[in-house]
Specification:
CATH architecture of the largest domain in chain A: Up-down Bundle
Shape of chain A: globular
Structural class of chain B: alpha+beta
Radius of gyration of chain B: 26 Å
CATH superfamily of one domain in chain B: ATPase, nucleotide binding domain
CATH class of the largest domain in chain A: Mainly Alpha
Helix content of chain A: over 70%
Strand content of chain B: 25-35%
Helix content of chain B: 25-40%
Number of helices of chain A: 7
Number of strands of chain A: 0
Distance between the termini of chain A: 51 Å
Largest interface: A-B, 47 and 57 residues
Radius of gyration of chain A: 20 Å
Largest sheet of chain A: none
Strand content of chain A: under 5%
CATH architecture of one domain in chain B: 2-Layer Sandwich
Distance between the termini of chain B: 50 Å
Number of domains of chain A: 2
Order of helices and strands of chain A: HHHHHHH
Number of strands of chain B: 27
Number of helices of chain B: 14
CATH superfamily of the largest domain in chain A: HscB, C-terminal domain
Oligomer: heterodimer
Largest sheet of chain B: 6 strands, mixed
CATH class of one domain in chain B: Alpha Beta
């Protein structure tokens, strides 16, 4: 069977937070063009099944590494820091207060049925996200794994907010 | 014994050995079949020279059927037994179908898919679609002069698992080997992209007879990557006809119509809609069975006004797909228009306004999907010439989830994940000694199970009796390149494989498919055994050919014993393939599959390594 490798090894990039996007894209396409089930549509069952498993694995690796937050969580996991299981850790109070404010603003915009306000919140949030990712990259750069995990955990909350805004816009459009 | 011709991957076999493969667009209103000949994709016409096959089937009491134009003519006379727009019923229950009250059919609401009672008995939408597919298969085989090795059948991108499975079942019933189910907008993108050497972000706006799809793709040399897709599986040109039909009823103050008049006015509505694409004024003119005459003037502007909400309904999914892809309209380089309903000027205008650019209409919107499917079929059948290589990466249109406490959905696989995709989820028991567990899989974006489509209920049996919470059951959801889901389960603490009983909520059971197959062969005067034998022989040849090619290239990956083992299986299959026992051939194929499993894994692994070497990859 196909030997087990981590996502970085599978896609042939160094296991670091900063990944060269172009090299990642290139490896992904290069590998998929060899293992994708479309290449084996006329093959026997064993080859078709293995192609599907490998293509699935390559998709998973690529989606994880291409996404800055998933990549951070995965990399921390490889280094023995479990971001998702650290639910016992208390969040910074200042961060929680800020979260509540966001929730309130989103709730108000939804109640006012204002797509424009939701869009503006989305723009603000994306600025905040950019800054946070820059900080996360720095933390990885200096090898501060615990603070990086904390930053990643906060970004999970930010992702949730973004999803909430998206759902809000969608629900207004569906009517 | 025939010598096998081995060609290197990527190299075309000689012309006389080309494997006939076709692309089929199984449409709501019309269906088409296309193939690639001499490097050019073309539609295969019927013997009268018609490219389209109206997607209409009439069942007669004597068991005979008429299909296409013939059925269209007979429709007014026998509306109850003449099935149009059957695609709307694929994988659907009665409550999912819009405008049921205006339908002339005698629906049978079963536990799964809706069925229709006809003069020739109760027919499932799968059987009706199979009649259309069979007609296209016969057309293709006649015009290509040989059996088909396979077909790519297109489905709306927004079709869910039940609808895709129903389409695949229909193809199997029609005697087609399905190489791939391909999303319609993706097929269009292939045809457009290859013809125009397009690069960059492109969108496909596909408004067909009964379905709407919108997909955003990134096209780059040799790669078609779907970034996001969205749509409405129950919105199409038919709804514009229906709006016009309702308008006529209202304006003319008509009493409830007979089935015949209903069909007449529906056909008239469609005619007027098409006329108003090129004319400013029309007259809705029809004579009912009672002798009553309907005569109403209608302007293009009035028609646009009464259907404006339908056009608007396509724009919300369009924006949603862009949002999912993280793009804005300004990022889109071109919008390819597909489907006959995009001919309507107000649809064109709405798209042009949203994207601030003129949509691309340089391909025939009725044919482009079939042509793209033919190109993909040609590639999958191994006919592509060197340099004609491309890679297609499609996505799952709707999220897959599981029912959790309180009727809520927990998403397991998110929409727009690149296919193939898999996720494993762990479950545990909540009672001491619990040995079974039931799991409910749904598809859709809503939070409540009742708002999503129920795909299947699984029952896991054989869980070892342990205290509550001790058993660990890993359930794996695998979605293949056709967008179809398979589920497997394993008890991880003891390693026991829990059995999975699949009960499709929609769709058909295996027994029913087998019975339908048997019926259809009996009807066609074909013998099920002959058919099974032929299928196994074709599969055996395919298998032998691919293993021989693999041995030729990569024998070095095997030690002497492994090589000998595979050789023995190859020889055994080659001998068995000559006999007329389909079961013996099948078991020899299975044996060869098992014998080559680790070889195939090693080959694939080496392929990945090759893909990574020879290039400067940072940091290796």
């Amino acid at each position: 069977m196909v030997q087990a490798r981590n996502h970085f090894e599978l896609l042939g990039v160094a296991a670091a937070y900063a990944v060269p996007a172009e090299a990642l894209d290139r490896s992904y396409r290069e590998i998929q063009s060899r293992v994708h089930p479309d290449r084996f549509a006329a093959s026997g069952e064993a080859e078709r099944r293995i192609a599907m498993q490998l293509a699935t694995q390559v998709n998973e690796a690529y989606q994880t590494l291409r996404h800055p937050l998933k990549r951070a969580i995965y990399l921390l996991g490889l280094q023995g820091v479990e971001v998702l299981s650290q639910t016992h850790t208390a969040m910074e109070p200042a961060f929680l207060v800020q979260q509540l404010e966001w929730h309130e603003n989103i709730g108000e915009a939804r109640a006012a049925r204002s797509t424009a306000r939701l869009e503006s919140l989305r723009a603000q949030l994306s600025v905040e996200k950019r800054e946070r990712f820059a900080r996360l990259a720095n933390l990885f750069g200096s090898g501060a794994l615990q603070p990086a995990a904390e930053a990643a955990r906060q970004l999970l909350f930010i992702d949730k907010l973004e999803q909430e805004i998206g759902d809000g816009i969608e629900s207004l459009e569906d009517l | 014994m025939a010598l096998l011709q081995i060609s290197e991957p990527g190299e075309s076999p000689a012309p006389h050995q080309r494997r006939h493969a076709v692309g089929i667009d199984l449409g709501t209103t019309n269906s088409l079949v296309a193939t690639v000949r001499n490097g050019i994709a073309g539609i295969l016409n019927d013997e009268q020279g018609h490219p389209l096959l109206p997607s209409i089937v009439r069942f007669r009491a004597d068991g005979s059927v008429s299909v296409g134009y013939e059925a269209e003519i007979e429709r007014a006379r026998d509306p109850k037994n003449t099935i149009v727009s059957v695609k709307r019923f694929m994988g659907r229950g009665l409550r999912d179908i819009a405008h049921v009250e205006n339908s002339p059919y005698d629906f049978v609401n079963g536990p799964g898919m809706v069925q229709i009672r006809t003069a020739a008995g109760v027919k499932s939408p799968v059987e009706v679609s199979a009649v259309l597919l069979q007609e296209l298969r016969v057309r293709a085989e006649r015009s290509l002069g040989g059996e088909l090795v396979g077909a790519v059948v297109t489905v709306p991108a927004y079709f869910d698992d039940a609808q895709r499975q129903a389409t695949k079942d229909a193809a199997a019933l029609a005697g087609l080997n399905v190489l791939r189910l391909l999303s319609e907008p993706t097929a269009a993108a292939i045809a457009y992209g290859l013809d125009n050497a397009a690069e960059g972000i492109y969108a496909v706006y596909d408004l067909g007879g009964g379905t709407f799809d919108f997909s955003v793709l990134r096209l780059s040399t040799g790669v078609f990557e779907v970034l996001a897709t969205s749509g409405d599986a129950a919105l199409g040109g038919d709804d514009f006809d229906h709006r016009l039909f309702c308008w006529a009823l209202e304006k003319a103050k008509l009493a409830p119509l007979s089935a015949g008049d209903n069909t007449l006015l529906s056909a008239k509505s469609r005619e007027i809609k098409e006329y108003l694409t090129h004319h400013a004024e029309a007259r809705f003119n029809a004579k009912l069975g009672s002798g009553e005459v309907v005569d109403l003037p209608l302007s293009q502007a009035e028609f646009w006004e009464m259907t404006r909400h339908l056009v608007a309904k396509t724009l919300a999914p369009t924006r949603k797909a862009l949002r999912d892809a993280g793009l804005s309209v300004a990022d889109v380089k071109g919008v390819v228009m597909v489907g006959g309903a995009t001919r309507m000027p107000h649809v064109q205008r709405a798209v042009a306004e949203l994207f601030a650019q003129a949509p691309l209409n340089n391909l025939d919107p009725d044919k482009v999907v079939a042509l793209g499917a033919a190109m993909q079929a040609n590639a999958l059948a191994g006919n592509r010439a060197a340099g004609e290589d491309w890679l297609l990466l499609d996505v799952i249109p709707l999220s897959l989830g599981l029912e959790t406490m309180g009727g809520l959905v927990e998403r397991v696989i998110h929409r727009n994940s690149t296919l193939p995709v898999a996720r494993a989820q762990e479950f545990t028991t909540f009672k001491d000694g619990q040995s079974a567990m039931s799991i409910h899989v749904v598809q859709g974006e809503r939070e409540l199970v009742s708002d999503c489509r129920s795909l299947a209920r699984f029952e896991l049996h054989g869980i070892p009796p342990l205290v509550a919470g001790a058993a660990r059951i890993k359930v794996t959801f695998q979605v293949d390149a056709d967008g179809l889901l398979a589920v497997s389960a394993q008890e991880t603490s003891s390693g026991a494989q829990a059995s999975v009983a699949v009960k499709p909520s929609y769709g058909l059971s295996d027994e029913r498919i087998t019975r339908m197959l048997r019926d259809s062969f009996e009807h066609a005067g074909d013998d099920l055994r002959t058919r099974a034998l032929r299928e196994q022989q074709v599969e055996a040849q395919r298998m032998l050919q691919s293993v021989e090619a693999a041995l030729e290239q990569d024998a070095a990956l095997l030690d002497a014993a492994e090589f000998a083992g595979i050789r023995a299986c190859v020889n055994s299959l080659r001998t068995k393939a000559q006999c007329d026992d389909h079961r013996a051939i099948k078991s020899a194929i299975d044996e060869l599959n098992r014998a080559t499993e680790s070889f195939a894994g090693r080959r694939m692994d080496r392929s990945v390594q090759e893909a990574l070497t020879g290039r400067s990859v940072a940091g290796i």
